[in-house]
Amino acid sequence: MLLMQTKGRTALLSALFLFWLCFAGDLGAWQSEALARQSQRAKELMAAGRFEEAIPIYRQMTQAVPGNPGLLLNLALAEHMAGHERESIPHFEAVLRNQPGLMPALISLGAARLALNQPEQAIAPLQKVLAADSKNHDARGMLAAALLGAGHADQAADQYRKLTDVTPNDPRAWYGLGKSYESIAAATFDRLQKTSAQSPFVAALVADTRVQRRQHRGALILYREALKQSPTLRGVHAAIAEIYRKTGHQDWAETEDAKERALPSPDCAAHPSQCQFVAGQHLQTLKLPRNGAPSAESLFWRAKAANELALQAFVRLGQLPPSVELHQLQAEIARDQNRNLEAVKEWRAALELAPGNPRLEQELAVSLFLAKDFRSAVAAATAQLQVSPQSPQLNFLVGDSLLRLEEPEKAVPYLEAALAADPKLREADASLGLALARLGQYAAAIRHLEKSLELDDDGSLHYQLARAYQSAGSSEKARAAMAQYQEILKRNQQPKEDPEREQQIGPP
After folding, report:
1. Which of 145, 183, 187, 481 is 20 to 30 A from 304, alpha carbon to alpha carbon?
2. Model confidence pLDDT, tens digit, residues 14-63
3. How far, in Å, CA of 447 to CA of 58, rounded?
4. What angle do CA 339, 342, 345 make, to 5 degrees?
5. Are the CB atoms for 204 and 222 separated by under 8 Å?
6. How far from 274 is each of 223, 242, 286, 385, CA to CA, in Å?
7. Closest residue by Cα to residue 317 from 302, 336, 333, 296
8. What is the spatial distance between Cα 444 and Cα 293, in angstroms, rounded to a whole number?
9. Cβ proximity of 222 and 245 under 8 Å
10. Nearest to residue 174, comparing CAs of 327, 312, 282?
11. Greater confidence, 32 or 320?
12. Claim: this prediction has a pTM higher than 0.90
């Protein structure tokens, strides 16, 4: 998934070079000598990677010889390789209307759709490529990324598994496979939660997540709640034992291990998913019944199996030489655990292997922001805005960072740009409202603050809204907002779980 558009372009370059030569070689037979020279010059520019310079030449040639599919394809390829995806797509589609099975156009169209974050539209052309050439690993990797991006995680996992079989040392395949399984687990959990929110299965899965975030005490509470409802739920005692080991209570861990071993053997006719999972048949456990709604238990074991398969894929990734994907995974784990400085380090390590990659640069900017290094976040995000000036995320990141640096006047244009690109970005409404309020523009601030009140966890939005109402002469609204502000303060002052108590683990 990561670097897929770059991978698509570089993979195409050598494969298509002969294709360009083929069309260029025929020009002299039916065109003027001037056009033949233009063709030769464009071919040389493409071979040198100077795609931007080749575009106007191919554009002139398509105007001089309209309707020639080879020239139109070469124009589309130059546009695609130069990163002008929107311009290239209509040209690829025009070529494919005349030659529906033309492989260079199909694979390039899929890559262009992926680059524009249109994964669903990338699927069909890439499937056609694989139908004609099942050994095209680059197309399979792009198809897997498109399927995952479009929410078809099970199909994506199938494609990534095929890739890992034939390219076992490709970190991109293992990373994509792990991410596919993570997506399956998340979707399965959502389905389970909607149908059986109060079940012991939901409690156990949430506890697993708490363990990953090192919230051991909270995980123990949830595991015990699961056991209260289902005393024979397999794996829970073992999970509690692992928490005890991590927190230095080996004797308690042994007690829990003994409880796990004492559980009765499951009735495999009544509990097939559990038996499959315990036997290590995780791919089989992923399968749901074709007829009828799946049970809460089968969804639980499906989520567990997907998580286990994701872990196995990531372990395999870790056994390979250092890669962009490995650093990305480590950065994502660090971010999930609020270790943002470590995440910054990992994003920078990834960028050393893939300099200038815009996705990595943006993720670095996000982690710098989360680490409260706002000046560095502004610098990183501003640089990326040169590439993607309409990005709502980047504009918000710069604007909110400037606001936190007490520069509200500079923040306003970026926050307005973020909302222009994404009017539903409530975080930008909140920041813009706060920035305008600090500048004394209370009437303008009210609309944005009102939209973002659902995000107010510390009372600051209600407080600024109360001031804005007061300045606008709306005394009743000001009193109501201030009352809500006081209520949030009161709620936040109630005793919270002390992070240090996280290690105060009780006995079995």
Report:
1. 145
2. 444 434 444 444 444 445 777 888 888 988 998 898 999 999 999 999 99
3. 50
4. 155
5. yes
6. 18, 20, 11, 50
7. 333
8. 51
9. no
10. 312
11. 320
12. no
DSSP string, 114-140: HHTT-HHHHHHHHHHHHHH-TT-HHHH
Rg of the chain's alpha carbons, rounded to an integer? Answer: 28
pLDDT 10s digits, 155-186 = 999 999 999 999 999 999 999 999 999 999 99
* Residue with the two structure tokens 């009437």: 443
Label residues 259-296 b or e (16+ Cβ within 10 Å = b).
beeeeeebeeeebbbbbbbbeeebeebbebeeeeebbb
**Token output for 154:** 């099970």
Residue for token digits 């909270």?
218
- Residue 250 tokens, joined: 């080996």
Distance from the Cα of residue 37 to its chain's centroid: 46
Q: In Å, what is the CA distance from 136 to each residue of 99, 132, 150, 442? A: 20, 9, 21, 59
Would you call 29 exposed, middle or buried from its count of C-beta atoms within 10 A (0-12, 13-18, 19+)?
Answer: exposed
Q: Do 363 and 331 meet the contact criterion of CB atoms below 8 Å apart?
A: yes
Nearest to 492 by CA among 464, 463, 467: 463
| pLDDT for position 337 | 87
- Measured N-to-C along each axis, helices 85-98 and 103-115 cross at an angle, to the nearest 10 degrees, of 150
Query: What end-to-end distance do the CA atoms of the chain give, in Å?
Result: 43
Tens digits of residue pLDDT in 227-259: 999 999 999 999 999 999 999 999 999 999 999
186, exposed or middle or buried, with CB in 10 Å at 0-12, 13-18, 19+?
middle
Tokens in use for 23?
Answer: 């069309």
Cα atoms in the 13 Å half-sphere on the side-chain side of 334 = 22
pLDDT over 70 percentage in the chain: 92
Q: Which of 125, 90, 119, 92 is nearest to 5 (CA)?
A: 119
- The two structure tokens encoding residue 308: 């286990």
Positive or negative, the Cα torsion across 492, 498, 502, 505?
negative
Using CA atoms, how far apart are residues 437 and 464, in angstroms rounded to an integer?
7
Domains and CATH numbers, the chain: 4-150 (1.25.40.10), 185-319 (1.25.40.10), 395-492 (1.25.40.10)
Angle at 227 between CA 226 and CA 233, to 5 degrees: 90
Dig out the tokens for 28 from the structure: 């002299």
Say how far residue 284 (Cα) sits from the centre of its chain: 27
Question: 208: buried, middle or exposed (CB in 10 Å: 19+, 13-18, 0-12)?
Answer: buried
